[in-house]
Design brief:
TIM Barrel, globular, alpha/beta, 10 helices, about 290 residues, two-stranded antiparallel sheet
């Protein structure tokens, strides 16, 4: 397996993110947001020249782009009018991802209801299938990030989509911290679809509703009234949470996964220090 980092979480301008990842951390690759928060490239509207420049910067630092994070905010796949806009924006991201020679676009699609009779289920199914088929046509995979629902629910949704362009970005911290799901079970359940993973850790503060935590919309766009309290979740540095790393990595090896473990550290007082520690932690685990 290879080690990567989400470049933007280093909290520097993009050029400095890439330099630091390649020259200081010496990781194998980076995952990039579709829109860099520090004024870097925007894959919804960039030029071919900007894409070539990005490729050159990665080559200079001896890193590859493991995936593009296509999250653009909200639970828009649950609402028909908003989903149409998000589909068109995501198609642009997929187009430019393919031009970069990258094969994976990851995203949260919102909480998938357990019941297929739920009124938002067919809306989500239709629009995510559209993007999966579009990704396949470009030689890419549209990968759903885990956490908002249990692995069995996600697997069933993926099977309903029935496209070679659909996959999974497995985040063990979201699963363990929000849905209280064993990441090892999730690996074995979702094995055929895992194309990218995040290396993140968390603790569950208290059991609660994942749907309330992530939010669930009604067809008219209003938020669903969920009486249960939201799950309690706290992200912590890698190795300090509830993810069983030895068993989790062993499970990934068992299914033949040889892709990226991409470090994600979204909070904390010293994210760069935590990311350095996470890279060292993974190197020791993979040695």
């Amino acid at each position: 397996m290879k080690i990567g980092v989400i470049a933007e979480l280093l909290r520097k301008p993009l050029d400095e993110d890439l330099d630091f990842a390649g020259q200081d951390l010496k990781v194998d690759g980076v995952q990039l947001y579709a829109r860099h928060p520090e004024g870097g490239i925007d894959l919804t509207s960039c030029t071919d020249e900007e894409l070539k420049d990005l490729q050159e910067k990665c080559r200079k630092n001896n890193i590859v782009i493991s995936a593009i994070c296509g999250d653009v905010g909200g639970n828009s796949f649950q609402v028909e009018s908003e989903a149409l806009e998000r589909v068109e924006m995501t198609k642009k991201i997929i187009d430019n991802t393919a031009k970069l020679g990258v094969k994976v676009v990851t995203t949260h699609v919102g909480h998938i209801p357990e019941s297929k009779q739920d009124p938002v289920y067919p809306t989500m199914l239709k629009h995510v299938r559209t993007l999966a088929e579009y990704a396949a046509s470009k030689g890419c995979v549209f990968a759903i990030e885990t956490g908002p629902e249990l692995a069995d629910v996600l697997k069933s949704f993926i099977e309903d989509i029935n496209s070679k362009g659909i996959g999974v970005n497995l985040d063990p911290a979201n699963l363990r911290g929000v849905s209280c799901e064993d990441p090892v079970y999730a690996v074995k359940t979702l094995a055929p679809y895992i194309v990218h993973t995040h290396a993140k850790d968390a603790i569950n503060l208290y059991v609660g509703s994942a749907a309330k935590f992530y939010g669930l919309r009604n067809p008219d766009g209003t938020m669903r009234d969920i009486s249960a309290r939201a799950a309690g979740f706290k992200e912590v540095p890698l190795g300090h949470g509830m993810v069983p790393w030895d068993a989790y990595i062993a499970a990934l090896k068992e299914i033949g996964y040889d892709g990226f473990l991409t470090v994600e550290r979204e909070c904390g007082e010293n994210p760069v220090g935590d990311i350095k520690m996470a890279v060292d932690f993974l190197r020791k685990k993979l040695a």
